Amino acid sequence: MQAPPTELPAWQTLHTHQRDLAGCHLRELFAADPKRFERFSVEAAGLFLDYSKHRIREDTLTLLLELAQQTGLNRHRADMFAGAPINTTEQRAVLHTALRNRAGTSILVDGIDVMPAVRRVLQQMRDFSEGIRDGRILGHTGLAIRDVVNLGIGGSDLGPLMACEALEPYSRPDLRVHFVSNVDGAHLGRLLKRLDPRTTLFIVASKTFTTQETLANAHSARAWLVAGLGSEAAVAQHFAAVSTNLKGTAAFGIPDAHVFEFWDWVGGRYSLWSAIGLSIALYVGMDNFDALLDGAHAMDAHFRASAPTHNLPMILGLLGIWYRNFWGTATHAVLPYDQGLHRFTAHLQQLDMESNGKSVDLQGRSITYETGPVIWGEPGTNGQHAFFQHLHQGTDWTPCDFILPLQSHYPLGDHHRMLVANCLAQSQALMWGKTQEEARAELQSQGMSPAEIERLAPHKIFPGNRPSSTLLLSRLTPHTLGALIALYEHKVFVQGSIWNVNSFDQWGVELGKQLAGRILKDLRDGTPAAAQDASTSGLIRRALDPG
Ligand code: F6P
């Protein structure tokens, strides 16, 4: 039975090492080593990572890599790529990497090669997306499709939504995509006001095809379409589905030709590489979707084969462990300096928090150490005018990832240079800070009186020593986006493996679903059931009589 990581020798050594480094400022680490940037930077699959602004020395990395080795990360990684059932609570393989396997190799699940089926669905996606884009596949009244609406939630929404936003420069103005996820009727209702049923295609994206929100939206969309076109038969031409539940899609009335299969070895939050990415293929074309898969595959190959000291997912994952378990940080900010990545952190939130927000280990034991942190963030420069105050001067500190494409798809005036300057300035300010002496000198140079300086100086001090990574991309393309997403997927894997949790189940979302079912029944019955607690019962009564 695998020992908890806290019992491994490297864990203990890392605690001692942390105490060693605790009094050391990043300013000192930079002063001590002029080669620090070269030493702590690495490049792979089109991404460049500077991790020199971290509270580490070379021996820190060695110790963290020892920890990874002692927890059996290499074996676990090999098991995942080989299709072993590492999702042990659901007895499933974890093979999102097979969806983007461009190496021409076989990958076996229960002795059967999954690659022919993967290629078949990719071909089906190509035929369908090209047919819609070229106008060979038309709507019920003979008009071309102009609006695609993805109806899905969680992994069946966030991944494709994030990717479509990021890849907007590769889209065509005459084919738009929309994403409806919330069961709040306002989400679908607001969109339908703007759409024409004759030119709209709905994709029902649901791995299980049982998710309440998605099915409610799908049924309402269907009613809108039938009412608008005056024909039930129109459903066949205006609906497609992506699911592992082919019985469910058939029962909804979606013809087989418009049903895109995927498999139970693809987790929802890892599914954008499957036919769940159909909206991406429709929006930017199948060649670009293929390039997205290529980028992810390049990161897979890097993760599998690169030396640990040069392995981006390992380094990012281990840095996260370092702060979460040895410095006690509870959150981690992801700050893309690219408007196209404005939903990237939301996608990572599900990816990371649904994967590693666990408190029981793989052997079913209660966990006594911290696991997945809270992931949060917004794009720069917007965040600078909102929550960066807390990052710079709050009483807690938060490790940050800055993500910056070096070339813009929209080279307007000096905008991009300003964006770059702001991004680099923020990580510098976090790391460097401003001492009392520097603050005083600055105020003095502004001609302030000694009394004013005394009063203001404490407020102008920045502690600095706040760590961050900077990830540079030459440009946000399908290929670099694929590599970036896969980087974070593997980072989450590295951490889950060290924490000895199952990163691929999500039982924590079930209780709320069950209770919502009971409360919905009470709302329909017009009275709370006797078994409801006093608070819920009181709230149900208020909901029944909104006033
Ligand atoms: O409720 C959580 C969850 O199961 C996620 O894991 C998943 O991404 C989402 O719901 C949607 O599920 P489905 O694709 O089956 O509709």
Structure write-up:
The chain has a six-stranded mixed beta sheet with strand order 1-2-13-12-10-11, with helices on both faces. The longest helix has 22 residues. The chain contains 23 helices and 13 strands. Strand 3 and strand 4 form a beta hairpin. The model has no long low-confidence stretch (mean pLDDT 97). With 547 residues, the protein is an alpha/beta fold. The protein binds 6-O-phosphono-beta-D-fructofuranose (F6P). The site of 6-O-phosphono-beta-D-fructofuranose (F6P) has 14 residues, from loops.
Quick overview:
Helices cover 48% and strands 11% of the residues. The protein has helices at residues 9-21, 26-32, 36-39, 58-70, 73-82, 96-99, 115-134, 158-166, 185-192, 212-229, 234-238, 246-252, 278-284, 286-305, 312-326, 344-356, 388-393, 415-432, 436-445, 450-456, 478-499, 510-525, 534-544, and strands spanning 41-44, 47-50, 108-109, 112-113, 147-151, 176-180, 200-205, 239-243, 259-261, 331-336, 374-376, 400-407, 468-475.
Category by helix and strand content? alpha/beta
Which word captures the global form? Answer: globular
Please state the CA-atom Rg, rounded to the nearest Å.
25 Å
Per DSSP, what share of the residues sits in E-state strands of 2 or more residues? 5-15%
Low-confidence stretches: none
Query: Given the structure, what is the number of helices?
Result: 23
Bound heterogens, unique: 6-O-phosphono-beta-D-fructofuranose
Fraction of residues in helices? 40-55%
End-to-end C-alpha gap? 58 Å
The side-by-side strand order for the widest beta sheet comes to 1-2-13-12-10-11
Q: What is the mean predicted local confidence, pLDDT? A: 97
Please give the number of β-strands: 13
Question: Main sheet?
Answer: 6 strands, mixed
